[in-house]
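Next comes this protein.

***
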Amino acid sequence: MGINQRLYMIMQTPFLVSRSNISLDPIAGLLKRCLKFKALRGGRQVHAWLVIRGTDSRILSLNSKLVGMYASCGDLKSATLVFKRIRNPNVFALNWMVLASAFEGYYKEAIWFFCSMKDSVFIYNKYTFSVVLKAFVGLLDLNKGKEVHCMVKQLGFESDVCVANALVDMYSKCGCIGYARRVFDRMVKRDIVSWTSMISGYCNVNKIEEALVLFERMRLEGLEPNDFTWNVLISGYARRGDSDGAFSLLSKMTREGLVPDLVTWNAMIAGFVQGERAGDAFKLFQDMLVLGVKPNLVTVAGLLPACGMISSIQRGRAIHGLIIEDVTRGDLKKPGSFAMLSAFYEGKEVRYNMKKIVEERKAQKEPAFSQVEEKDELVGVEIEKENNEVGLKAG
């Protein structure tokens, strides 16, 4: 039975129509399904029905599920509006707000939701810390991350694998590989995420030998690497400019029965570009096409900077063609496509190309907005700075 059918049956059930005698179980179950299947339209219908019945602001459990439903569907604005109406939010609602804000890239808002509960009777759980640490990674705010680490210790969550993994990831991505390793070594139990995060941290600071030692140690302890672990290590070799090492690992990965996918190729291409090995990046791209692996927008994002490195407007235009014909398939209203093309054409006296695309596709570059609380009202704050704007103006 679909969500709309369930909603119709609930609305037609006599004992649910009475405002004074409403059964929560069917409604809660329906919201749970909307959350699971990201059914935003159905969730909005449930919310509208609750508003009509006058129950949307009275029942904490339903409000929390509404927050979760909107957050899981990516409707951060609606989630925020519901969250603000909750007098005493529970851990479920808070975790969803922190997670949704961080996932959408609103790291400051994620931290605001976290910090707003510090002085309340709210009790954090392990998922709260796992999520908020990702926000500090997004902001590269090491000091705040350390403060949260202290809270983790005080509340006894450092032994939890999920929280410890988030700490390793946070320290690694902030460049504090020593702190990351100390957390890693103290872990009583480690999973594939723990090992991969630590290996990735070493690769990020160009300590490939240490990463490889850890990689082999992981296997000795009986844990086999997954695709992502291989990709991290291969990308590390490529970033360092060690094409032989990268291809050797790629061959080893294949021999062990793992087929390199598009993520693997993209990781190698990005690694070569970061290591300023544009020639190797393009050679790898050609090999990828020969093998029938179709590029995506991530591939293109990795290759465009390589065109700039070798000042090849011809190759840039070829990549441009991929975006138009093969990658986005006419969906050039995606901001990412324009951002990459605009950045490539900037300074090459061909900005008219961007104007032409915009006119042909009737596309618009929308500014990004974030929701913050000010005088108990939800207001939109433009976060795109003029000097960082990816303009679509004619040159």
